[in-house]
Amino acid sequence: MKPIIIRAGQGTLGFMIPEADGTTTYHPYAVKSGMSIAANLRQAFKDESYLVNGAKKAVLMVASPVMLMPTAEYEEYEQFDADEMYGNVITGHKGEEKIIKQIDELGVTAVFPVNSDLQMVVNDHFPIVDTQNVMTNVWPYLYKKYYESGKRRKLFAYFHDKMVDICNFEQHRIHFANSFQATHAHDALYYTMYIWKQLGMNQMEDELHIMGDMPHGDWLEKRLKTYVKNVNINENEDKVPFDLTICE
């Protein structure tokens, strides 16, 4: 049986549940305000019958900032202190467990935090737990699409969890990857166009690919197309987060 996928976003919870016929069903969970995501998850296990399906394995998918480094550089460390290294690059996640994942296709190692209470709740319910980050799935998918679809330079922007992750690829590796807060459409427009200009993208020849849940999507799409000729939009029409739709 496929594992249950538990997606813990910024104030959101959702579950991808394997069915007996081999398909999967997405169940968003109505998060109760005033309770932590870990507490909401604990309550969901009590309330939701679809979580009692006999699965022995769970994938915990978290939306947290990722630190990337070349795997070759990571392997040079005799003792790699993930907590210290992450804290030197990204602030605000002290006391959270740090997960290390190698992304072989891209030759990079990802370090990202997960709330310890959240991790404990999942571990209490499943004997096998694989903790992942939404972007450690998205980057390899975009990389594959990049090299399958022509020679034009491409900039990718994935909107999720009130943020936008922007990346591009050059010479068969990640050339740029960063996260920005994107609660408001004006901020999203600014960050996307700032990175476009910073990377020297050509507004008439290169491509901008947008995925996910854009704030004020119609306004943002119209504005982006005034700056960039080739804009491709792939929004979440069925309300399933994009990073879950590409999970194998």
- The N- to C-terminal Cα distance equals 13 Å
Helix content: 25-40%
Structural class: alpha/beta
Please outline the major beta sheet.
5 strands, mixed
Number of strands: 13
Overall pLDDT, averaged?
93
Unreliable stretches covering 5 or more consecutive residues: none
Shape: globular
Order of helices and strands: EEEHEEHHEEHEHEEEHEHEH
Strand proportion, as a percent range, falls in 25-35%
The Cα radius of gyration reads: 19 Å
Order of strands, main sheet, comes to 3-2-1-4-8
**Count of DSSP helices?**
8
Q: What is the structure about, briefly put?
A:
This protein has 248 residues and is an alpha/beta fold. The chain is built from eight helices and 13 strands.
Structure write-up:
The protein starts with a strand and ends with a helix. Strand 9 and strand 10 form a beta hairpin. The chain has helices at residues 37-47, 71-74, 82-89, 116-125, 134-148, 185-198, 217-227, 242-245; strands at 4-8, 13-18, 24-29, 57-62, 67-70, 97-103, 108-114, 128-133, 154-160, 163-170, 173-181, 207-212, 230-235. The radius of gyration is 19 Å and the shape is globular. The model has no long low-confidence stretch (mean pLDDT 93). Helix 6 runs parallel beside helix 7 (217-227). The chain has 248 residues and is α/β, with parallel strands linked by helices. The strands form three sheets. A five-stranded mixed β-sheet has the order 3-2-1-4-8. The protein contains eight helices and 13 strands. The relative contact order is 0.13.
